[in-house]
Amino acid sequence: MSTTLSIHNTPAAKAPSSTTEPWLVRALLIGIALAFLTLFLFVPLVAVFFEALKKGFGPYWAALAEPDAISAIKLTLITAAIAVPLNLVFGVSAAWAIAKFQFRGKQFLITLIDLPFSVSPVIAGLIYVLIFGAQGWFGSYLSDNDIKIIFAVPGIVLATIFVTFPFVARELIPLMEAQGSDEEEAARVLGANGFQIFWKVTLPNIKWGLLYGVILCNARAMGEFGAVSVVSGHIRGLTNTLPLHVEILYNEYAFTAAFATASLLALLALVTLGLKSLVEWRTHKRINEELPPENPQP
Questions:
Q1: pLDDT per position as a tens digit, 221-237
Q2: Residues 102-123: pLDDT tens digits?
Q3: Cα(17)–Cα(186) distance, integer angstroms
Q4: Are 230 and 125 in contact (CB under 8 A)?
């Protein structure tokens, strides 16, 4: 009896963890990670702001207030304001169809959604030139009707939509698949129509994943270079977005103006990172709140 009691009263030996490594190995891994972050992230980021402000705030603000810079900022905002809502509608529709329904060609649709991740943005731009350019498939028709797509704002918007449309859909598809369709089916049994089901049931469950996808989509839309560079024509004051404006200034050896404009994109990246972290924190908090409490051990 005493042996049995002593066994039950003795604390269980702590099981060795499979992830426990010697302190030297942990320090080495952390050091390598910090070295890479410092070399490829912190140093370039500091260099951008240092070069932008090296001559003071006067030249910095003058570079941002220059007419071509203002035009590039406006075009970037306009492009994002068109591309992001369209990708939002497409992403929600595609995710809902893929996650909630079974149909032929479902895997093919998922593959098509992933296409911009595997195709170079430059190739995407060339595709639009092939279709809508002066020598393209619809070039003669567009020219006869005085419709400009390539080397104009519509071409920039189309190229931006192409490179950014997977972001919202790819955030929502696994989330909606994991949630299943039990709640939607229950709402339908209770008499809710399709709009009510989406607004009252589906949207509240995906709102944080949706916001996460929109943030990433917006950041990519404002920072896209390759596809936009092909279809824009680099017309100063008309078809240059912020990344293209930075390239032109740098090629003209206007380094202060180039880094001042680049600092706007860097600030955009920092804001995006902050919003992304906030959404991730809110999502994890919501998941933890929904988890049932663990049963206390006797």
A1: 998 998 999 999 888 88
A2: 888 888 888 889 889 888 899 9
A3: 43
A4: yes
